[in-house]
Amino acid sequence: MASRQAPLGGLAPRCLWLLGAVLVMDVSARPANHSSARERAANREENEMLPPDHLNGVKLEMDGHLNRDFHQEVFLGKDAGGFEEDAGPRRSRRKLMLIFSKVDLNTDRRISAKEMQHWIMEKTAEHFQEAIAESRAHFRAVDPDGDGHVSWDEYKVKFLASKGHDEREVADKIKNKWDLNVDEESKGSASRGQCGACGSTDAGREVGEEVLENLKDRWYQADNPPPDLLLTESEFLSFLHPEHSRGMLQFMVKEIIRDLDQDGDKKLSLSEFISLPVGTVENQQGQDVDDGWVRDRKREFEELIDANHDGIVTMAELEDYMDPMNEFSALNEAKQMIAIADENQNHFLEPEEVLKYSEFFTGSKLVDYARSVHEEF
């Protein structure tokens, strides 16, 4: 499966007429789902060799959950770090309006669906480049001899070492074809506390045979024909980030459908897609979370995934929906993002609307910022 290259393109300099607006507007924010991207970034181990559960700019997580940060990822890109809660109010509002001016290609003070589509594709390209850089660093770590190929055994040694296992001991066992007994070692590690050398907790060290088997299956899927069980740098990228190759994206789609498909027809009905995760509702807050789960997934299923609106999602439809480089899907996303904040129903986004719905676009509420700035003047 060939690696997929993201389209790259520059944007011509445009007028930044919006800078003055950030100081005087008094707007309110709309409640939205809280972003978890920062928490994921903080919890990610530097030496983690496991393919990430979360893929920036991809609509679904590896477990089939909706990516709650998707709209912020494709709107902010590398600028996501500029909207922390402790950021200054004027700075945050100015940054948001600067982004608005970049999306507004024709400088008419409003964002069309086509302009938002172009921006989404550009931010997705940024995420692709970040994934390539991350994969390259991991590849070098698991390819110590620098021959440009990594075997499954080489990866397995480094992966288990990143989870707190003794690297030399694991390598010796693999070399001598001895049983690794990773399930027993994981259980035994529970009494040894945190791994100071690798920074991982006991929970992070628990690796069972099932995890290794799933990784091995994924490894084989990433191996381009004719299979040699050795991954090149581009194949290793597909192993870590399936969104970078058509074959691995299809594999990811099959895995998600397998987990959600209840009647075995290899398709998803609305009831299957919105089924609540395992667990019970113990209080009203839990009930609200479950209600939100159903509402969000129902809207996503009906408005975006089920392309022909026949009530059934096929593998092809889900693949198109999840493909971050699908321009048609990007246009649909652009229209949906505009509709969320389009209060005057003119099918465009205007500065006041972006500021008012800032939490949807940035994950941060700017309502207090706006009020404080307004009071200053």
TrEMBL record:
Record key words, sorted: Calcium, Glycoprotein, Golgi apparatus, Metal-binding, Repeat, Signal
Localization, UniProt: Golgi apparatus lumen
EF-hand domain residues: 91-126, 130-165, 248-283
Range of residues in the leader sequence: 1-29
GO molecular function: calcium ion binding
A Gene Ontology biological process term: calcium-ion regulated exocytosis
Positions of the UniProt region annotated as Disordered: 30-53
InterPro entries listed in its UniProt record: CAB45_EFh, EF-hand-dom_pair, EF_Hand_1_Ca_BS, EF_hand_dom
GO CC field: endoplasmic reticulum; Golgi lumen
Composition skew (Basic and acidic residues), residue ranges: 36-47
Primary site of residence: Golgi
Assigned protein family: Belongs to the CREC family.
PANTHER family, per the entry: 45 KDA CALCIUM-BINDING PROTEIN, RETICULOCALBIN
Name of protein: 45 kDa calcium-binding protein
Organism: Balaenoptera musculus (Blue whale)
Highest classification ranks of the organism: Eukaryota, Metazoa, Chordata, Craniata, Vertebrata
Gene giving rise to this polypeptide: SDF4
